[in-house]
């Protein structure tokens, strides 16, 4: 694998010349940019012009990760030319949250082919229910295909997100890249660093990713009572206090859910993923050191067993809520990922409205919130290497 990372800033342009020599159908170009680039897509058109045969994918962010740094108002790019891995891009429009499972199934049908080993998906962050989206993908792909990626971001504004459709930033799009070949090596890991507090509450009324009632009371009213003065900043301040969710009687790992929007008239909360009726929800909180340590755990899990001598593309997707909590210490969690990764690496990523990663024990992929997820792509020198 040949690998190059670089950044684009509106004031200064490209950090270094685009590497036309890496152009090929086996070249993956990932471009993570600020939401305002939907109004100025020229950098993406330039990527497509210089690398016309490459597979280009990208999305808007709540902060762009480049190496050990986090930027705003920029584009973070990784260009990876694989030697033994083939690529295929699938794109679909999503009509809304109710179309999420079908959108995932449409992508899966476009990607199904012999040799598929992994899928990296980037989704609209506001018009999608991430839980059925991932289910639609995984239920229509072979069980051994790992799915990772994330939901596009828009800072703490929650107004508009985009995903690249070709070289064009477009709203209400989902893009997935399939990676094929027996020499592909993929590692993945995620960790949160959050802990529960306060009473458990039963979800007594919900529909998909919209939560109406907890313990028979309006969900928004209860949440505002917990937030106090911070309720005036909703939905952004909700990122500081996500909810843990588990099904009653389940012994599995709880999932974390982040609020994307509120409805004052219906007194409801809209989340990035499903809030199933009958589930048990509880508020969560954290502190800086736990978040930073959890990023290191995610990187360690993602890189375990991968060949340290081979070049690797490391993609980090972290939640915007973590960035709001960490503040000036945000780059420390990114540095922790790099410190725990094999060398040589190229490291890019973004702050998101939802993270997609397989379960820790190698189970099915799922939507996560408030986590650091790390995906590593490399190639083995041996054709018989497992994925």
Instruction: Count the E strands.
Output: 27
First and last CA, distance = 16 Å
Helicity, in percent? Answer: 10-25%
What structural class is derived from the secondary structure elements?
alpha+beta
The value of Rg in angstroms is: 20 Å
Low-confidence spans: none
Q: What characterizes the major β-sheet?
A: 8 strands, antiparallel
The rough form would be described as globular
Mean pLDDT rating:
92
Number of domain units: 2
Quaternary organization: single chain
Strand content: 35-45%
Description:
By secondary structure, the chain is of the alpha+beta class. The chain has two domains: 2-191 and 289-379, no CATH class; 199-285, no CATH class. The chain has helices spanning 42-50, 100-111, 130-138, 219-227, 288-303, 320-326, 330-339, and strands at 2-9, 13-14, 27-34, 55-61, 64-66, 69-71, 74-81, 86-93, 116-123, 146-151, 163-165, 168-170, 173-180, 184-191, 195-207, 210-214, 217-218, 243-246, 255-257, 259-263, 268-271, 280-285, 312-319, 345-352, 354-358, 365-368, 372-379. Strands 15, 16, 17, 18, 19, 20, 21 and 22 form an eight-stranded antiparallel β-sheet that branches. Strand 25 (354-358) and strand 26 (365-368) form a beta hairpin. It is globular. The two termini are 16 Å apart. The model has no long low-confidence stretch (mean pLDDT 92).
């Amino acid at each position: 694998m040949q690998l190059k990372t670089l950044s684009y800033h509106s004031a200064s342009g490209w950090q270094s010349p685009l590497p036309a020599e890496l152009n090929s159908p086996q070249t993956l170009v990932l471009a993570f940019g600020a939401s305002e680039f939907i109004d100025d897509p020229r950098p993406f058109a330039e990527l497509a012009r210089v690398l016309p045969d490459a597979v280009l994918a990208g999305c808007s962010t709540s902060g762009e990760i480049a190496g050990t740094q986090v930027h705003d108002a920029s584009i973070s790019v990784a260009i990876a030319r694989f030697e033994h891995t083939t690529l295929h891009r699938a794109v679909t429009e999503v009509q809304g949250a109710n179309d999420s499972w079908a959108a995932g199934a449409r992508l899966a049908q476009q990607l199904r082919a012999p040799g598929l080993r992994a899928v990296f998906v980037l989704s609209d962050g506001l018009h999608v229910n991430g839980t059925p989206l991932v289910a639609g993908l995984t239920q229509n792909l072979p069980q051994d295909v790992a799915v990772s990626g994330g939901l596009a971001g828009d800072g703490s504004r929650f107004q508009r997100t985009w995903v690249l459709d070709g070289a064009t930033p477009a709203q209400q799009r989902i893009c997935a890249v399939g990676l094929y070949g027996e020499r592909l090596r993929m590692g993945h890991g995620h960790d949160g660093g959050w802990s529960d507090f306060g009473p458990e509450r039963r979800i007594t009324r919900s529909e998909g990713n919209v939560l109406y009632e907890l313990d028979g009371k309006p969900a928004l009213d209860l949440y505002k009572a917990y937030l106090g003065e911070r309720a005036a900043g909703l939905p952004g301040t909700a990122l500081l206090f996500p909810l843990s969710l588990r099904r009653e009687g389940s012994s599995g790992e709880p999932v974390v859910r982040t609020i994307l929007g509120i409805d004052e008239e219906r007194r409801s909360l809209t989340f990035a993923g499903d809030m199933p009726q009958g589930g048990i929800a509880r508020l969560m909180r954290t502190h800086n050191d736990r978040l930073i340590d959890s990023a290191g755990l995610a990187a360690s899990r993602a890189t375990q067993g991968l060949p340290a001598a081979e070049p690797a593309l490391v993609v980090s997707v972290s939640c915007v809520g973590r960035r709001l909590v960490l503040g000036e210490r945000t780059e420390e969690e990114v540095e922790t990922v790099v410190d725990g990764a094999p060398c040589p690496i190229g490291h890019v990523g973004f702050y998101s409205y939802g993270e997609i990663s397989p379960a820790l024990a190698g189970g099915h992929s799922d939507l996560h919130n408030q986590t650091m997820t790390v995906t590593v792509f490399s190639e083995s020198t041996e054709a018989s290497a497992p994925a």
